[in-house]
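agent: user wants the structure for cysteine desulfurase from Lottiidibacillus patelloidae. delegating to structure tool.
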Amino acid sequence: MERIYVDHAATSPTHPLVIEKMIPYMNQAFGNPSSIHHFGRETRRVVDEARSYIAKSINAHPHDITFTSGGTEGDNLAIIGAAKSNSHKGKHIVTTEIEHHAVLNSCKHLESLGFSVTYLPVDETGRVSVTDLEHALTDETILVSIMYANNEVGTVQPIKEIGQLLKEHDILFHTDAVQAYGMIAIDVEDLQVDLLSISGHKINGPKGIGFLYSRPRVSFTPHFFGGEQERKRRAGTEDVPAIAGLKEAVKLISENKEEKVRTYKQYRDMMIAIFDREEIEYHINGHQEYSLPNIINVSFPGTTAESLLMNFDLAGIAASSGSACTAGALKPSHVLTAMYGENDERVMAAIRFSFGLGNTEKQIATVATKVAQIVKRITAV
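agent: tool returned. relaying tokens verbatim.
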């Protein structure tokens, strides 16, 4: 039985070319980038070149890039670090109810330290209102954190409009762009964001690496204390193989991006067409216009996500019910709850399918057909 992976929003397979780029820095050029001898200078060059290349991908300066262990650390460092460093200006933060838990739990931690946090609601498409945000701002607001695109339903937020609003108020703006990076062109100057988090394993790079963009005007308190790596923002010897791999992954996502987007949209349309042909009942969650092309979140009335996922796995289909950080908990999705309310049937019957490297048109047709068959079997009971 062929096993088909349609859970790329949880993690993506490491591209073979990325692996190829990483290997030499494990067994040949293994020096510490902080060492002044040849071995250290060799790896320092790799780190510096990667930083410059990655910075260009978002129209930033190399000095604005801090390598992290991934999106979670980037979110934590941006939110907690910036809040602590700027607490003399105020102690109010604004975010949304549908953020990744790396953001939500960072905000909860800050609440325990005396900060106040406003959690903005979203509409039924998962989109936040810029007007609601403006009304939530106070003289004490120092930071706003709103994700670029949601990891569960794929809804894209009005980041540029938010950036323009916050610039007028001189409030720091952080966006978790983990799902958006690679799918949407990002220009930090155009968006007017001050802090932006990225994770390597969502773009066919290695796990355990990511980066945080921070505008020069931003000051934040570091989480790690030790050496002076990463301009004293993040102590610890740099993971050179992972950084080399991340650079290659960033290079690869820029190639044929438009073609990939078109392909994923075709996969999405094909899946919907097969559901219609099979005459099953379903509901698509998320915004139909402002949405990532590679994520489709679908609720199947008369089923539960738990029963569906068990049957999918037996049929060789790897999908999920939402964020990989919480899916194992079998709790209602906080994203869908924010969109529909906790008692709506769509919340407990939702499945996320996400496309990526290795998927083919034939695979997606197979997935959609098997899903329809399983839904029919479950709802017939």
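agent: one observation worth passing along. The longest strand covers residues 92-96.
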